[in-house]
From TrEMBL:
The keyword Signal applies. InterPro entries: Host-pathogen_enzymatic-act (IPR051200), N2O_reductase_N (IPR011045), WD40/YVTN_repeat-like_dom_sf (IPR015943), YNCE-like_beta-prop (IPR048433). Keywords: Signal. This is YVTN family beta-propeller protein. Residues 102-254 form the YNCE-like beta-propeller domain. It comes from the Bacteria.
Length: 312
């Protein structure tokens, strides 16, 4: 299937229950897969595909459905749902741990992590977290997973070899989304706040000792972040101000603000091509930003309310 070529994008469209396949080279959506018509039955309610994870052989896509409280496994080649499993309430993110053959799903309204068998898609156990878990990040060695508990101002650390809660880390603000640096040594914690006049914050932790390395204050509503391989630049989306911030981690200052389409959300970086891909929830597009020129070079229409972006 040409549309599954390396370098293309897979995008989850929250409001129309679909998955978009985007060919970056030609700058076009080349496939849209409806999650309501490829299964054995048609769901009676919206699914709300929020976050996605692609397996290492690029065949199966795992989708958490926030409205349906479920996780779906999709065969991208056959374009069919293999299985759908009920998890917790309002699942927000999914991580695949190939090392131990597990899937981890954060359930925001159940205050838990559902652990499933990667092959069988059967539930193994539920790990309790603090209030409102949302974002997750797994270390490079796949031995630890960090979970951001937005309302409790904590990070839950899970040991993947035992599937046990290892430790709880107190943070300064309300952690929302998490991302590891390119080298895997730093954890970027994006903080959530709707308080009037309060600026956005990104905290940086050394994952080895979970010590606070730095705290960045910028924008109003940062959502997700990505960094380059050398930990020189941090890229931050701001949903309220429709901006992408380019922040110098070495100089500790904001280098540039790039105007994006409305309500930028998910962000992924192509290290080889030096390109950033940012989803715009309100304008239903993926903005492509050049890391070199630091400007938007193309916007590609996808489905309604695109959230998560994965590079094939």
């Amino acid at each position: 299937m040409n549309y599954l070529s390396q370098g293309n994008l897979i995008v989850s469209n929250f409001s129309d229950d679909s998955i978009s396949i985007v060919d970056v080279t030609i700058g076009k959506e080349v496939r849209r897969i409806s999650l309501k018509t490829i299964g054995k039955f048609i769901p009676s309610q919206p699914l709300g595909p929020h976050h996605i994870a692609l397996d290492s052989n690029l065949k199966y896509l795992y989708v958490v459905n926030s409205f349906d409280n479920s996780l779906s496994k999709i065969d991208l080649i056959k374009e069919e749902i293999i299985n759908t499993v009920m998890v917790g309430s309002c699942p927000s993110q999914v991580i695949l741990c190939k090392k131990y053959g597990c899937i981890y799903v954060a359930n925001s309204d159940s205050n838990s992590i559902t652990v499933l068998d990667l092959n069988e898609l059967s539930i193994q156990l539920q790990i309790p977290t603090d209030e409102m878990p949302h974002g997750m990040a797994m270390t490079k060695d796949q031995e630890r997973i960090f979970v951001a508990n937005r309302e409790e101002k904590t990070l839950t650390e899970i040991c993947t070899s035992l599937n046990e809660k290892k430790e709880t880390h107190r943070v300064a603000c309300n952690p929302w989304h998490l991302r590891l640096s390119g080298d895997g040594d730093l954890l970027f914690v994006v903080n959530y706040s709707h308080q009037e006049g309060e600026q956005g914050k990104v905290e940086i932790y050394d994952i080895h000792g979970m010590e606070l390395v730095d705290e960045i204050t910028l924008g109003k509503m940062p959502v997700e972040v990505a960094s380059d391989w050398g930990n020189e630049h941090l890229y931050v989306t701001d949903s309220d101000l429709d901006q992408l911030y380019v922040y110098s981690l070495k100089e500790k200052r904001l280098l540039k603000s790039i105007k994006l389409n409305k309500m930028p959300h998910g962000i992924e970086i192509d290290y080889n091509k030096n390109l950033l891909f940012v989803s715009s929830i309100q304008n239903n597009v993926i903005d492509i930003v050049s890391c070199r020129s630091k400007r938007v070079i193309r916007s590609i229409e996808v489905g309604k309310e695109p959230t998560s972006v994965v590079i094939i």
